[in-house]
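Standup notes
- DV: blocked on the single-chain target, sequence here:
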Amino acid sequence: MNETQTITELAREFGVTTRAIRFWESHGLVSPAREGGNRVYSKRDRTRIKLALRGKRLGLSLAEIKDLIDMYDTAEDESSQLLSFLGALAQRRAALEQQRDDIEAVLKEIVRFERQCREMLQADEGAAAGKTRRKAQSR
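- DV (later): unblocked, structure below
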């Protein structure tokens, strides 16, 4: 791999659009050099994109991703960075667990409504069958 890459090369490598990389640039996640009007990305930029994508997969917000990446650049010791990352992960896990609980509650409600609908259909079918028998007997 070269020391520097173009936006197209990075986009291809990470499976993202050049627009996504420009978006991250506009939010300060990467800061490429310019050569003749072209963006030239360093190893540092590549690492920051890799970390941004990892944060995105974990469901972190853009602000959280930026904070963590900036900390990566400035952290004198790794422990403060790791503690911060653990805090962000704990918050994300708690949010996902709450979403899971909400989804499970809604699924239980759906099952209950489905059961009620089936029971009502069976009752309607039974009533309709009874009417048909009575009609046939009265003839």
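- Follow-up: Helices lie at 7-14, 18-26, 43-57, 62-74, 78-138.
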